[in-house]
Description:
Layout: H1 10-18, E1 26-30, H2 37-48, H3 64-71, E2 77-81, H4 83-86, H5 112-116, H6 118-123, E3 132-137, H7 144-155, E4 161-167, H8 175-178, E5 182-185, H9 191-200, H10 206-212, H11 231-241, H12 249-252, H13 262-280, H14 292-301, H15 304-320, H16 327-341
Parallel strand pairs: 1-4, 1-5, 2-3, 3-4
Amino acid sequence: MSIKLYPWQDALEKALLDLRDRLPNGLLVYGPRGAGIFDLVQAFAKSLLCTQPAADGTPCGRCHGCHLVRAGTHPDIRYVVSEAESLPREIPFVPPDTAASDRKTVYREILIHQTRALTDFLNLKSHEGGVRIVLVYPADRIRAEAAASLLKSLEEPPENTVFMLVADEIDRVLPTIRSRCRLIRAGAPTREQALEWLKSQGVQDAERKLTEAGGMPLAVFDEDARFRLADETRERFLAYLKLGHAAPPAQALSVADKDVTLSAAALFLSRWGWDLASAKVGCEPQYFPEFAEEIKTIAQAANPTGLYTWINSVRDIRRVSEHPLNAKTMIEALLISYARNI
Length: 342
Ligand SMILES: [Zn+2]
């Protein structure tokens, strides 16, 4: 029996289950995105709502608490989860009243109305007589006013209530929030563990996909397609980029089609740029190891100033890439400046 969801989670599972009988008011679990950390913390939270758990803390699956959890209607658990993280997990998200009905982007941060909605929950007594749980993710992406309101709840925690926060990047969590929590660092899977698991899931071309996903196996399945290029588009980008400074501007115009998002293109180009910069200083490429030879050749010939100018321009575009702009034109401009600069 176990609550862990993935084979690399033994240590985190043990750390959580060890807390079962002495829960802190605030718990902050942090570690790399794409390693399934939030999902295990959520499983732990659900296991706490079981009234007849096994000796090791795993839920029985039969009691009233377990039934309510399974139906998604347990009154003693609340989610404060960004819209972007709610969607793939089927966690309910209520948009703010002022939400424009035609907005094109999802909210990636926790908003003030979400933490405000907690107040009523926290003023009530536990429905089922046990612990009440607030799950917060991503704790490193909370808007300022929402963070202030969450902090207030954390500072005066109601009886028998535990706040479970999960963050991808601990350095981005407000120190005031951090200091109110027990910290647990969750490790990343080894490359071997990640590959073995991906293959067991029937993933083709697992090596390449894992590398592209920064070594985090669940990022391979990231449903956030805005950050991923379709396979055919990826081939066109690579065919162009591999030409280095000889890439003809005319070809740049046929690399991106109208469906390519700026977020996905900018991320892809920044990774290519990162690999070129690594090769320039004698390191192995991280994101495109299969093109190590081409990358080294281009990097050797590249003018360093031009290369860094180009990398910076990609970075600038990434900063605005959440906004609806003319994506195709901006991508073309980046591609043309690539050949011109390096
Ligand atoms: Zn149960």
